[in-house]
Write a structure and sequence with these properties.
With about 750 residues, this protein is α/β, with parallel strands linked by helices. Helix content is about 40%, strand content about 15%. The strands form four sheets. A six-stranded parallel sheet has the order 6-5-7-8-4-9, with helices on both faces. It has a five-stranded parallel sheet with strand order 10-19-18-11-17. A hairpin with a 2-residue loop joins strand 14 and strand 15. The longest helix has 25 residues. The protein is globular and about 75 Å long.
C-alpha cells in the first residue's frame, strides 16, 4: 500500500492528472479533513476525498455550514457560522464591484484558431450579444445584474443557530432519483444542499449535475446518466462536456490553482473522453459557469519589440501592431477569478491611498523600537503595504510593532492562522489575546474578534498585521483587504518556506515575487539545534546537527508496520521518559491519511494505546484527541469531553463546542496524528515525524520544512526513506500553482 503525496498539486501548473488522482473532491466544499484520493492521500487543504466510490465524502457540504452552539457557550462554533455569513457578504460586495466596471478584459489581437474563436465568444457573452453561429448554437445569456449593496452592521453578530439543512421532502425526492439511477442514496442530502429545492428535477434534466457533489467522479456520473437517460445518453452530450469542464476546474482549485491554461484544460477534457474539448469549454463559458482571461506574458530580454525601441514613430507603431506581446488564455471558476481581481484592486487601493495618520505618530513608534522591529516600523510609516519574512523567532518583530503602535494610540490589531498562533503571539506581548489586540483571521472576518466595523463595513483599524501570511488563500485575503479602510496599513508577515495555503492561490509568494511593495527580511535566527536544522532545510541543506540534549533523534525503520510500532512507543514511553514531554503534548505528523502508516492507521494504534475504548459515539470516546473542522480549510485541535443526544461535546482552543450527530462524521477526526497541512500554524513541545518507505512521493522541501518546524523542544524522525529525504530537501521545490495575481498586479507596480 502506498502513502501518496499530501497535496494534489502534483500535476503542475496546468491541471491535476485525473488519471492518477481522479476523485479529489470539490474545490472549496471539502472540510479540513474531507478530500482524500482513492488511496488515501491529502489535497492542498489537508483534506481527504471519498475513497473511490460515489458515497458521501467525509467532508460534506453540511460540514461547511458549521455546527450548532450550546446556549452561547460554544464560541468557536458561532465564529465558524459567522465566518460563512461574512464570506457570503464579501462575495456579494466583490461581485457588485466587478459589475460596476465597464471595461472589458484586455485582449490579444494576434490570436488565431480556437483561441480566437474563444475570445470572440467571451466578448459576445460579456456584451450580451448573440455569439456567432460557428461558436455557439445557443443564444448568450442576459448580462448579469449587479448584486445589491448588502446591509452592514457596525459589528457582525454570530448566528445563534446553525443553518438548517435541505427540506426533508427535497431530500426524499432526490433520494428517489438517485435510487432510480443506481447511485447511493447517501448522496441525497449533499445533492439537495448543492442543487437546491429543485434538485430532483435538475438531476432528471441533467444527470451530470451529480458531479457537483463532492467526491463524485465522471465515470460514476456517466453511469448515473445512462441509467436515467438510456439511449439518450451519449459521450458528446453538451451537458456532460460542461459538467466535466467545471469538475476539472474544481479539481484544479483543490490542487491550489485559481485558473487553468486553456491547452491544459482541453487536454484534460480529452483524457476524460470528451469528444470536442474546445466546444465543451465554449459551452461552459456561454452558460456563465466559468470565465476566460487573456494575460499578457512578460517580455523576454532581447525580444524584437525591445530591439526596435530606437526606430521612428511610424516604425514603432507598425512594429507594435506586428509584434504584439504574447498572451496566454486561462479559464477559471468565477468565485476565484473575482476574488483574485478584488484582491489586486484592494492592494492597489491600500498602496495608493494617502496614509491616515501623520508621520509623527509613526516616528514615535519607530523611536521606541530597535533592530528589525524598528526597520519594519519605518517601512510601515511610509507605505500602505509591507511584507515581512522570517522564521518562528522573527514573529517577535511584528509583535513589537503591534505593541508600540497600540502604545502610541494607533488602532492596531494582529491576526494569526490558528488559535495556537494567537496564543503564542499574545504570550510574547505578555497578556491575554483580547487585551493585546490579537486574534485569528477567521475571528476577525466573522466579527467574533477584533475592533468591529464602521457603518460602511470597514474595520476600524489604522494597522492590521497578518502573521502566517503564506496560509492566506485568495478568497480570505480578498475579504481581509476589502475590509480595510482607505489609509490603513497592512503588514503581511510569514515564513515563505512553509506549505502554501489550503485554498486556491499563493498570495504571499505572488506578492513577494511581484516586488511591488517594501519587503523586510528578519535576521533573527531560530535558536537551538532545531532552529539550526530547520534553517538549513529552508536553503536546501539537510545538515547533521549536534543535539546534546536529545533535541533531535533519528529512529530508522524498515517498513510501515515497524514505523507505526516505533511511533506509538515514542509517543507513549520514550519521549515522556527521556524528554519530559507528556503524550498529550506530542504531535505525530505523517504525509497522508491513507496507507499502512497514514493518519488513520496511526490514530487507530495511538488510540488503542493511549485512550482505549469502544468508540461509543461515532468511533469516539471521552478523552480522545481530535481535530475539528468548523469550515473548509480549517482544523482546530481539541479533546472529546462527552456525547449525548445533542451531539459530540468537544473542548477546542479553550472553549466548548457541540457538534451535532449528523455532522460528526464529516467534521471530526482523531487527532494524535496529523498531516503537515493540518499542523501548519501550530507548534507542540514535541513532534514525531513519520516517514515510511512508501512516502517518498510525498516529500518536498516545503513539506519537510513544515513538518520538522512543528517541534519546539524535541523532534523524533521515524526514518524509512533513506536517501530520498536529503534529495527532497535539496531538489524538490514547491509544486507550482497557476494563479493570476502577479499579472493583475503588474500594471499597478510603480
Amino acid at each position: 500500500m502506498s502513502t501518496e503525496p499530501e497535496t494534489t498539486e502534483d500535476a503542475g501548473p496546468g491541471t491535476p492528472d485525473t488519471r492518477e488522482t481522479p476523485d479529489q473532491g470539490t474545490a472549496g466544499e471539502a472540510t479540513a479533513e474531507g478530500t482524500e484520493t482513492t488511496d488515501g492521500t491529502e489535497s492542498a487543504d489537508g483534506t481527504e476525498t471519498a475513497a473511490g466510490q460515489a458515497a458521501a465524502p467525509e467532508g460534506s457540504a453540511a460540514a461547511e455550514e458549521g455546527a450548532a452552539v450550546e446556549d452561547g457557550a460554544a464560541a468557536e462554533l458561532s465564529e465558524a457560522e459567522a465566518e460563512l455569513a461574512a464570506q457570503r457578504i464579501e462575495r456579494e460586495r466583490i461581485e457588485r464591484r466587478k459589475a460596476e466596471k465597464g471595461s472589458p478584459i484586455a485582449s490579444g489581437g494576434k490570436l488565431s484558431g480556437t483561441a480566437a474563436d474563444l475570445l470572440a465568444a467571451v466578448r459576445a457573452v460579456e456584451s450580451g450579444e448573440k455569439p456567432t453561429a460557428t461558436v455557439f448554437a445557443e443564444p448568450a445569456p442576459a448580462p448579469r445584474r449587479p448584486a445589491p449593496e448588502p446591509v452592514r452592521r457596525p459589528e457582525p453578530v454570530p448566528a445563534p443557530v446553525a443553518p438548517s439543512g435541505p427540506a426533508p421532502q427535497t431530500v426524499d425526492a432526490v433520494r428517489r432519483v438517485l435510487t432510480e439511477g443506481g447511485a447511493p442514496d447517501t448522496l441525497a442530502v449533499q445533492a439537495a444542499a448543492v442543487l437546491g429545492e429543485d434538485a430532483a428535477a435538475a438531476l432528471r434534466e441533467d444527470p451530470w449535475q451529480l458531479l457537483r457533489v463532492a467526491g463524485v467522479r465522471p465515470e460514476q456520473a456517466d453511469g448515473f446518466a445512462r441509467a436515467l437517460l438510456g439511449a439518450g445518453c451519449a459521450p458528446d452530450d453538451e451537458r456532460r462536456g460542461r459538467a466535466v469542464t467545471v469538475w476539472l476546474l474544481e479539481q484544479a482549485a483543490v490542487a491550489g490553482h485559481t485558473a487553468l491554461d486553456l491547452p491544459a484544460l482541453t487536454a484534460a477534457l480529452g483524457r476524460q473522453g470528451v469528444p470536442d474539448p474546445d466546444a465543451a469549454v465554449q459551452a461552459t463559458l456561454a452558460e456563465g459557469e466559468a470565465l476566460a482571461f487573456q494575460d499578457a506574458l512578460e517580455e523576454q530580454p532581447g525580444a524584437p519589440a525591445a530591439q526596435d525601441a530606437g526606430r521612428g514613430a511610424e516604425t514603432d507603431e507598425e512594429t507594435d501592431e506586428e509584434q504584439e506581446r504574447p498572451v496566454r488564455v486561462l479559464v477559471g471558476l468565477e468565485r476565484y477569478a473575482l476574488a483574485e481581481e478584488s484582491l489586486a484592486d484592494g492592494l492597489a487601493r491600500l498602496v495608493n491611498s494617502p496614509p491616515r495618520e501623520a508621520g509623527q505618530d509613526w516616528e514615535a513608534v519607530a523611536a521606541g523600537l530597535s533592530g528589525g522591529a524598528a526597520e519594519l516600523a519605518r517601512a510601515v510609516a511610509g507605505h500602505g503595504l509591507v511584507l515581512h519574512t522570517g522564521g518562528e523567532a522573527a514573529r517577535a518583530e511584528p509583535a513589537a510593532l503591534l505593541g508600540a503602535a497600540r502604545a502610541a494610540g494607533l488602532r492596531a490589531f494582529a491576526v494569526c492562522h490558528t488559535p495556537d498562533g494567537r496564543g503564542r503571539l499574545a504570550a510574547q506581548l505578555g497578556g491575554e489575546p483580547a487585551e493585546q489586540g490579537v486574534g485569528t483571521v477567521a475571528g476577525l472576518l466573522s466579527g467574533a474578534e477584533g475592533p468591529g466595523r464602521d457603518t460602511d463595513g470597514a474595520l476600524e483599524l489604522d494597522l492590521l498585521i497578518v502573521l502566517d501570511a503564506p496560509q492566506l488563500d485568495v478568497e480570505g485575503a480578498a475579504m481581509l483587504v476589502e475590509s480595510l479602510p482607505d489609509g490603513a496599513r497592512l503588514v503581511l508577515s510569514g515564513d515563505p518556506g512553509v506549505l502554501w495555503s489550503a485554498g486556491p492561490g499563493r498570495v504571499f509568494a505572488d506578492l513577494l515575487a511581484a516586488r511591488g511593495c517594501p519587503q523586510t527580511a528578519s535576521r533573527v535566527p531560530d535558536p537551538g539545534p532545531l532552529g539550526e536544522l530547520v534553517s538549513g532545510i529552508g536553503i536546501g541543506e539537510l545538515n547533521q546537527v549536534a543535539a546534546p540534549g536529545k533535541e533531535i533523534v533519528i529512529v530508522p525503520v524498515r517498513d510501515a508496520g515497524e514505523a507505526v510500532h516505533r511511533t506509538v512507543q515514542l509517543v507513549a514511553d520514550s519521549v515522556p521518559r527521556a524528554i519530559g514531554v507528556p503524550a498529550d503534548q506530542t504531535v505525530v505528523i505523517t504525509p497522508g491519511h491513507g496507507g499502512a502508516a497514514g493518519t488513520r492507521a496511526l490514530n487507530t494504534a495511538l488510540k488503542e494505546r493511549l485512550n482505549p475504548g469502544p468508540g461509543r459515539f461515532g468511533g469516539f470516546d471521552p478523552g480522545d484527541r481530535i481535530v475539528y473542522s468548523p469550515t473548509p480549510g480549517r482544523t482546530v485541535p481539541g479533546v472529546v469531553v462527552q456525547a449525548d443526544a445533542e451531539g459530540l461535546h468537544l473542548s477546542c482552543a479553550g472553549g466548548p463546542v457541540v457538534v451535532p450527530r449528523e455532522r460528526v462524521e464529516g467534521g471530526v477526526r482523531h487527532g494524535w496524528a496529523l498531516t503537515a497541512h493540518q499542523a501548519v500554524g501550530t507548534r507542540w513541545p514535541a513532534a514525531v515525524v513519520v516517514l515510511p518507505g512508501d512516502a517518498v512521493q510525498a516529500l518536498s522541501r516545503p513539506w519537510v520544512y513544515t513538518a520538522f518546524g512543528r517541534a519546539e523542544r524535541h523532534l523524533s524522525v521515524v526514518h524509512g526513506v533513506e536517501q530520498a529525504l536529503p534529495k527532497a530537501v535539496a531538489e524538490i521545490p514547491p509544486k507550482p500553482r497557476t494563479t493570476r495575481l502577479q499579472t493583475l498586479l503588474r500594471p499597478q507596480e510603480g
